[in-house]
Design a protein that fits this description.
6-stranded parallel β-sheet, globular, about 170 residues, single chain, alpha/beta, Rossmann fold
């Protein structure tokens, strides 16, 4: 399998922790880690397969570093590129916009012709609303380090197994 670009902020605790599990379960040799806080459009254009770490900030927003990076590539076609998205959210603290950033990022990618994989069922989550939800599935993997920390690692392991197959298709 060709290298996958794993883009996330190395300065965000939960997103970094999740990235560590992703690298562990996927295999270090298959992943290039890119700190999105200093990434350039050339870093992004090197890959056809991506895993994006996109936590939800405040009331359903992308973190500042993603807001600052995305304009660099918003004019690019993403056709032929495949993206898996994970992100931290807080079901109890922010039940009206749980893991919204995953949905925001998926729409950004799909609008430019990119393919999003790694959908997960919403079973086992308790929240009121999420822009990451399409029907009964999330368009990525939401992780709740605040109220379901014990489920983070097993969810990532199952998701990595799933996206490994989907990247190969």
């Amino acid at each position: 399998m060709e290298k996958i670009g794993l883009f996330y902020s190395i300065n965000t605790k939960n997103t970094s922790t999740a990235a560590g599990f992703v690298r562990q379960f996927l295999g270090e040799d298959l992943v290039d880690t890119i700190n999105v806080e200093v990434a350039t459009e050339n870093d992004f254009r090197k890959y056809d397969k991506f895993i994006l770490g996109v936590p939800t900030w405040w009331d359903g927003e992308l973190p500042n570093y993603w807001d600052e990076f995305l304009p660099c590539v918003e004019g690019d076609s993403m056709e032929g590129k495949t993206f898996a998205i994970y992100g931290a959210g807080d079901q109890k603290g922010y039940p009206d916009n749980f893991a919204d950033a995953i949905g925001i990022m998926a729409k950004f990618i799909e609008k430019r012709g990119g393919k999003v994989i790694g959908f997960t069922k919403n079973t086992g989550y308790t929240f009121d609303a999420s822009r990451a939800l399409t029907g009964d599935v999330f368009v990525g993997l939401p992780l709740d380090f605040e109220s379901q920390e014990e489920l983070v690692e097993p969810r990532i392991k199952a998701w990595v197994n799933q996206i490994t197959k989907e990247f190969a298709e």
